[in-house]
């Protein structure tokens, strides 16, 4: 039984993004048109670099959740189009900044923007996209929307700094890790969903329910992303494994394995993640330790826990295809691990 089984708005098959993309398809095309139009600039490097990031793909999950949340709340206007684009600009800006901070050379299988144009250009174009996001918020005219998305932007930045403070630190505990992903990832998912209720002028309880759904979905999403970096499932998804390991990132699987390991194992983690002194075979050994201590299985279990909370948050919202599809999305997120 999948995590979405507590919402029963009709039969469902294997979880996928198909129903969600069908539900919001026309609106998503309009969002993409706004994104393309608003990333233009007479400064040629800006659309070139921004276009490179956009061309790298991505599921557009955050703007799709804004669109789906608005539909779930019965909204039939057009405000959610610009706001979904604003959400995606915030996300894209954070990706540009992330890759600079992490010194990443790849983004979704392609050369990262900072690898092509350099760190300075990536940071500045990220700032440009943040500014575009706020232009779209102001054009919407809702102070409540502006409050939600501006707060999300500041919390995300706090999460980035928290992650910097825990980078390559094997002493990081579970609570610190969860604080980072709650700020860095879950906050924008939460805001993306909450504004769907705001544009529909729904009661505060509905906005809070969607905020809770988005936050818990975001936690589950990031937990699965972090365990996939050590999973053979990544290969079947066409992605490489071990990127987080090579960069010395401290994620929940590592936190659990480090805490449960003996002193020899802890020395291994300190050498490879703190000192970044890595040799051939170290990634395989890391994956063996994660399996030995049940770190991946327990990370999946935690993702399921947050997925359950996300689905439960939907229970007070109107029943129908939109609610069913948003519940199925949680299953899709968690089952990427298998």
Written account of the structure:
- Mean pLDDT is 91; it is low at 1-11.
- The protein has one domain: Farnesyl Diphosphate Synthase (Orthogonal Bundle).
- Helix 2 (45-55) packs across helix 6 (119-140), helix 7 packs antiparallel against helix 8 (174-199) and helix 12 packs across helix 15 (295-313).
- Strands 1-2 form a two-stranded antiparallel ribbon.
- It is built from 16 helices and 2 strands.
- With 338 residues, the protein is mainly alpha-helical.
- It is 72% helix and 1% strand.
- It has helices at residues 18-38, 45-55, 61-72, 79-102, 113-117, 119-140, 143-166, 174-199, 204-228, 233-236, 243-247, 252-260, 263-274, 282-292, 295-313, 321-335; strands spanning 106-107, 110-111.
Structural class: mainly alpha
Radius of gyration: 20 Å
Describe the sheet with the most strands. 2 strands, antiparallel
The pLDDT mean sits at 91
Q: What is the annotated CATH architecture?
A: Orthogonal Bundle
CATH class: Mainly Alpha
Number of strands: 2
Give the name of the CATH superfamily: Farnesyl Diphosphate Synthase
**Which consecutive residue ranges, at least 5 long each, have pLDDT under 50?**
1-11
Question: In what range is the share of β-strand residues?
Answer: under 5%
User: Structurally, how many domains make up the residues?
Assistant: 1
Biggest sheet strand order reads 1-2
Describe the global form: globular
